[in-house]
Fold:
Amino acid sequence: MAEKTTLRKEFTKGLLVENPVLRLVLGTCPTLAISTSMTNSIGMGISAMIVLVCSNIAISMLRRVIPSKVRIPAYIVVIASFVTIVQMLVKAFVPALDSALGVYLPLIVVNCIILGRAEAFAGKNSVAASAVDGIGMGIGFTAALLCMATIREFFGNGTLFSGADSLLNLFGITSFTGIEIFSRLPESLHIEPILILILAPGGFFTFGLLMAVSNKIAEGKGKPKAELRGCDSCPMSGSCSLIARDEAGDCAEKQPAQATANTTGGDA
Structure:
């Protein structure tokens, strides 16, 4: 019973309380770039979730085998392997989606959400918990993308699920290509799309709006606000601090040796 409660908690935390985009402020680059279309957002979210779940499981299984000093390169190799598999499958079965996502699909390799969960959770917990964490975080990421895309596509383009046939082709459905909303309104109710919402400024505006809403909901649950705190908010900050400390120690050891060599050379 206790294990089921723990797994339920690991699953639900990624939906809102620790939403990777709106609460942890991770993976914002693909979020802002892809969220102009609901179809692209669903495709990116599912792709990232598959990589997240598979890499979490693999890293959790190998956590006692991977040496601590090389765990980050090892994590990246594992993540890159699954990203390559997902990209090849998308190219083969959903080529239109692959073209729409462009470079952001292979860039899942360096997505902070994937690497952050590997370092902060999968490398320290069981396979079952890591899989559930990946599913919860993946759904949370997809939900954040979809919320942003709904606002931006509806008000910025006057459509919903534009280009949905690129995904529905997998199920043999080619007739549904999206919902035209503004163009079907009568002339008396004609509305012009707010084009800035599908541009970069509109992405930042929508992102800030959703963060404010998620902060308000989190406050009601007694959780702290999500704030941009530089490196302190990154799950990799601990590893970076250790690397910086080791480099500082190496420099301190090298400086006396160089000073001694210079003095010896001068006397000669």
Observations:
- The two ends are 77 Å apart (CA to CA).
- DSSP finds ten helices and two strands in the chain.
- The chain has two domains: 2-227, 236-268.
